[in-house]
Structure to design on (259 residues):
């Protein structure tokens, strides 16, 4: 296989920090074909496992780590964050990872849910969270901050970057979804606007994520403003694949590592 550098997008706020390498990888620069073309990092997809392994190896190389040190959990839309200091033999069931160990790339896979990368460069602690609506409501962002604090971070110093995810113009939800979130907090009504479909609404997932990060005391929040659904050339999207009747979908990877 011809080696090609995978395309990745950086957060300007994270890029300013010393001793940190990171990337929100796009779907460009891999070896997968068809609906998975080309940089599918999803071990849970039905893509050829050899292609997924090669794609992930390319992403690891782009961040300067060995493939065995490019770590992603077995994601289950939970609020759980695990700390890691060495490659694991079996992936834990969790939706966020934090580390204070240089050379360990912590990562999450997404295909519309919100990838959030965290760093306190002064403390030497980084984290990655998979925050769909269920994980965000359940507290995965706050769990990541708590785990990072256990490793020595201070949330007022933490930079959190929200990467490519499904954005409000693309995220139509039914009335039961609106009722569920406003029942938790009437203030959540501000994250909805009417849809053209009667009785439905459009949900602002990145706005909701940012609000929770701000309420939790995060020092800097950087939203990249990218929509996975609307940009098929660069991003995989679960919802777009479903609307197009495709049998499966690729996964994007967001990762961060300490030098």
């Amino acid at each position: 296989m011809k080696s090609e550098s995978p395309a990745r997008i950086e957060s300007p706020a994270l890029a300013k920090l010393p001793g940190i390498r990171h990337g929100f990888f796009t779907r460009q620069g891999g070896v997968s074909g068809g609906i998975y073309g080309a940089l599918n990092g999803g071990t849970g997809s039905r893509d050829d496992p050899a292609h997924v392994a090669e794609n992930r190896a390319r992403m690891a190389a782009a961040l300067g780590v060995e493939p065995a040190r490019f770590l992603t959990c077995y994601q289950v839309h939970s609020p759980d964050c695990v700390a890691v200091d060495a490659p694991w033999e079996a992936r834990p069931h969790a939706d966020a990872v934090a580390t204070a160990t240089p050379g360990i790339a912590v990562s999450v896979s997404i295909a519309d849910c919100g990838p959030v990368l965290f760093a306190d460069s002064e403390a030497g602690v980084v984290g990655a969270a998979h925050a769909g609506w269920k994980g965000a409501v359940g507290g995965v962002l706050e769990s990541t901050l708590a785990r990072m604090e256990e490793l020595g971070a201070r949330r007022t110093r933490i930079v959190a970057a929200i990467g490519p995810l499904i954005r409000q113009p693309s995220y139509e939800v039914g009335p039961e979804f609106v009722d569920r979130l406003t029942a938790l907090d009437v203030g959540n009504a501000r994250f909805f606007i009417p849809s053209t479909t009667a009785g439905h609404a459009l949900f602002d997932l990145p706005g909701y994520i940012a609000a929770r990060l701000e309420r939790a005391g995060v020092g800097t929040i950087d939203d990249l403003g990218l929509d996975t659904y609307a940009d098929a050339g660069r991003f995989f999207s679960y919802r777009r694949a479903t609307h197009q009747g495709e049998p499966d979908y690729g996964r994007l990877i967001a990762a961060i590592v300490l030098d």
The mean pLDDT is 97. The CA atoms of residues 179 and 185 lie 10 Å apart.
